[in-house]
Amino acid sequence: MQPAERSSSTDTSRAELVDEARTLESAIDVDPADVRRRAGRVVAQARRSDVPEALVWGLRTIAVLDRLEGDPAAAVALLDDALAVARRAGLPTLCAWVLASRSVTQLELGRTARARSDAAAALAVVDEHRARDAALDDLHARIQLQLAVMDHNAGRLVEAEARYRAVAREVEPGDPNFVRAANNLALVLVARTAYGEALRWAELAVDGATRLGPALRSWPYLTRALIEVQTGRLGDGLRDLERAARASEEAGQSPGEYYVEYAETMRELRLLPEAAAAGRRALEELVAAGGGLVEVDARISLAETLLLLGDAVGAAQQAQTARVRARAQRRPGAHDRAVLVAVRARVRAGDAGPADLAAVRRAAARLQRAGELGPAADAHLEGGRLAAALAMPRRAERHLVAAAALARRGPLSVRLRGRLAAALSGRLGGADDDVLRQCRAGLRDLARHRQALPTMELQALASGHGAQLGELGLEVMVRRGAPAAVLRWMEQTRAAALQARLPVAAPEPEGAQVASRAGAQASSPVGPDATGDRRAVRRSVIVADDELEADARRSAWLEDTADRVPTAGRVPSLATVRAALAGRVLVEYGRHGDRFVAVVVDGARARVVDLGPTAGEVADALHALVFALRRMVDPSSAAAADAARASADLRLVRLRAVLLEPLDLPPDAELVVVPVGVLHGAPWSALHDGPVALAPSAAAWLRTRERPAAPAGPVVLVAGPDLRGAQDEVEALRALHPGVRVLGAHDSHADAVVAAVADADLAHLACHGTLRSDNPMFSAVVLADGPVTVQELHRSGVAPRRLVLASCHSGADVAYEGDEVLGLVSAMLSRGTAGVVASIAAVPDVEVVDLMLALHRRLAAGQTMARALHGARGEIDRDIPAGFVNWCTFSAHGAA
């Protein structure tokens, strides 16, 4: 009896071991670390007790964990071992499970052919045994899902969609396979631009995943975020990205795929430096995890971002690597997308030829056959442009017509490229009416999208999607020659973000702090007196950390914007502009291609002046001028100062000759100048002998005329810390104004300054300024408790009627594609400030005091900012370097 009892006990323990091994995988999503410990114990015991079934399940579980944790090569080795054990033991259904898992892992390694072979072999076994083993139903769904993924990655979207739908019908909504199928089906539908249905499937995937572990939960959040961002629901999309990041971190997964999706989102929003940083981070993570399919996608994504940033060399390198690896992985869709980016990079470098056109044509055809409509439209658009440049109009027309047709139902960026393709087609055929119709339709679509965005920064960046449409339309309008029509077109395509009515940020709870980057000292929290003031600035602990700056930006994007009033751009008529000028002359500049054009409006007439292909010459002159001015602020010697002055004079003469002399203006005329692009950085006061006021658009200048002077508005003078002469400056200015309030260098804390200047009739800030040309909303003025960024000031709603910024670079707003401008001056004007004086460059600290005294004497006498600055500049001794710099760099903005 004793031996039989031992045998029975042994059989029971073997069965228990097999049962435990079979259930290991189901707990991976809940506690992967515990599953790994248990699986290791099962494998060891199965080897000792010679239980092959338990050994196979245990090895397979560890392999799944290795794959999920970013080591697919180790997973394949374990699965090879498991498959050999299963075959020796004659366990065909276990062979199918292992083959299915190895197929997934081979695919992650980019071994597409091996992955498909394993999946087909597994499916054959399942089909043979499924009728006798209901447990194989789950495996059948998994394999079908895996085959769908392979179809998806190969660009066979029709086949992939059919398989995903079949799996979704086959399993219950709470099943992990349903979540995967619903998530991937949503991605296929996005590629087909069926956003409504895509969002419904993404919602089903999210709902199912919330009941599962974090390892599966992050992907549906990423997919839903992609759809939300592409359909204009920015806040929802960013929240889902954060949820995906948390779930990925909880699951211990490599964050590579999260960063790929985040980079895609940032690029869609035109936040290109952020997209590039996230793309590089994604690539680092994915390469460290073993590369594979997603690495190729990450390289293509990064190449597209680098191309938008103007780095054609870097884009070509990434695209070429992705092309080679996609071919090795037998992924024609990824290969063709990489080819497309590589050709764009060669076009940018001026090296593209007929061979590139042939490559684009082949890629476009394959992408279109595969159902990848967005990439196919891009390929046809690029083919059309390249064919036109190579003097092949018929080929160009075929490509452009195909691009326009494919892009009709895409996301905003794709639809706009479709409009661009149709406009270019019209241009080829000399059909100006068709060009304008497509440009107008695209810009209207862009305007609706822009109004849904929650910050001025995002709205300004979004305008870049329509930059080429604006230039094409302007080209037609200039050719037609009607000044009113040219002016109207320019006004439709510039400074639209400044017209949004964005909400004033509510104050932080007492002691709350938001991170900011610009500075090196810690600031105090908001005091009790700020809690009832909606204009309270969100103060910050100052740290050198780019992640904190990104957090501060996202906090603005995620704010509730329900109280924001979308406003259509108000385009003033020529008669309205002429009446408001009251003797002034409006000069509004535009650009199409490399040509500048100006509309000149005075009391008698309006005219269009083509300034010719001078864009490159102007940019070079401005760069050299700014360099010379910087040298003159602190020259190393008298000889260096003289050389810099000679260089500056030469550039000023050339800029006058190109930008103003062809306009044939009276030398003493008072100008309202609306620059475009690089011309925002020109020293306009030094280019014209009469008073000059700048504005982002004619409409923006008209709005500054609408704010009346406050009957008893205070004058506020603020001195910043560590600035030579700042305290003396505000003390000297105090005597010029009655009822003035002075905040000295030790008292100029941010909240006190904001509260004082918010409703001031005139505010003067004598403090250090820091320029962030890469991120102008994080340029800052330095106060007693640290820097206050443009973003903080804008969100606080600060808007004195007139503002003098005696700070370095305070007027150096940054121009973006789409004729938008961001910076401290534009932020103040958008909030309602009617007049600003600021400098486009560094200013001498002490010598600027005399200019400010002369300016304020005239302001106190009731002159406008433009006339007061003009008179004050006339008192400057331009023979000394510091005097010349001050004479050259300060400009007035607005009508006050």
Textual characterization of the structure:
InterPro entries: CHAT_dom, TPR-like_helical_dom_sf. This is CHAT domain-containing protein. The protein has 896 residues and is of the alpha/beta class. It has five domains: 260 residues, Serine Threonine Protein Phosphatase 5, Tetratricopeptide repeat (Alpha Horseshoe); 77 residues; 67 residues; 130 residues; 185 residues, Rossmann fold. 60% of the residues lie in helices and 8% in strands. It has 38 helices and 16 strands. It has an eleven-stranded mixed beta sheet with strand order 3-2-1-4-5-16-15-12-8-6-7, with helices on both faces. It has a three-stranded antiparallel beta sheet with strand order 9-10-11. Strand 1 and strand 2 form a beta hairpin. The N terminus is likely disordered.
